[in-house]
Predict the structure.
Amino acid sequence: MRLTFHGAAGEVTGSCYLVDTGGVKFLIDCGMFQGGRVADAKNRHFAFDPREIAFVLLSHAHIDHSGLLPRLVAQGFKGAVYATQATCDLAAVMLPDSGHLQEKEAQWSHRAPLYTMAQAQAALRQLVPVAYDSELAPHRLVRFRLRDAGHILGSAIVELWSAGRKLVFSGDLGQPGHPIVSDPTHIEDADVLLVESTYGNRDHKSLVQTLDEFAFALNDTLSSKRGNVLIPAFAVGRTQDVLHFIGELQAAGRLPNKMDVYVDSPMAAAATRITLKYATLPPIERLHITEDLAESKKINSIRSGAVIISASGMCEGGRIKHHLRWNLSRPECSIVFAGFQAAGTLGRRIVDGAKTVRLLGEAAAVRAKVFTIGGLSAHADRTALLGWLDGFRRPPAKTWIVHGEPLAAFSLRDALLERPAWTAEVAASGRTVEI
């Protein structure tokens, strides 16, 4: 049996792993690479024939895990995509939205879109919902089970059995103690393990410290009554977490009740409605959810007192770019980053201290205050990752470190190698290994 790392190996986007049992080929995830022209080039060519893929096991709905499914289907994949019901619900929002963005970007880039909105809609017909913890055999040589990964709604760890061996794919693991989702399920055994390492080299601040930091970042700007707070946030997962924490802080009297909170993203609005099918959110005094483009443009006329939550989380597309255009160069405003910023993205350049960035085709000065609230991340930090790994009764025969930039991935590998009987190696993109 062979495993090939086609994405999220040495980086945090483009999650895609090909398993070839000798009798059937299938994928774990089929995600989009994110981060500029290099990522776009990677997204345009599969290193395998989509027509040979029998099925896909999808860990969760985030675009860096699901975003190339429509392209896979458009190029001949005809099998089922197995995912939890919540992931299917979210993908039904996210993939058509992604197709719409691809079409829009194609208009100004003069390149063919990766896929269209119609192709994304067509791909949804191949989603097959699967309940957590139930076993399913999509092929006579393979059976699998999805376990709760605690990252976003519907996120899953994949347990897979084939040829007498057990493979475990962690997917994106959540940070224990976060609202809305459960803590990640502990897995007791595996022959081969793929584990994410997004924060493999550092810990988040405690939730108490994180909320203190978050409240300070908002109050620092709102108390002056001169500027706005922008929160670039992933429409699925992070936006709902941010809303939860704002409501919680308002209830505790730590944020003003009369501040206006805008969720400006049609996808975030839809994802929030889906979230409310599975969980509850604390009320926010003056919450405005804008879906209409005209309403979105009106927000740009607000000069102070607004908290604007908008996608995309890494500032690579969507309405957040327009809000940055109107606020990034104003020193009285703040940008609060609530999630990981991948290398090559606009968000990463701002976090890394760039004084000027390219924004909507023009140079824009970065004068707003920049806050990075790592504890709001839905990814497990180093301690949480190691805690989850300690849940195995015995070390897997082989552990591959994936879904992390090199510093984080090698740091987690080194920590594992210090543990008795553990063997671990950082996955390399394009490499095929025997398992």
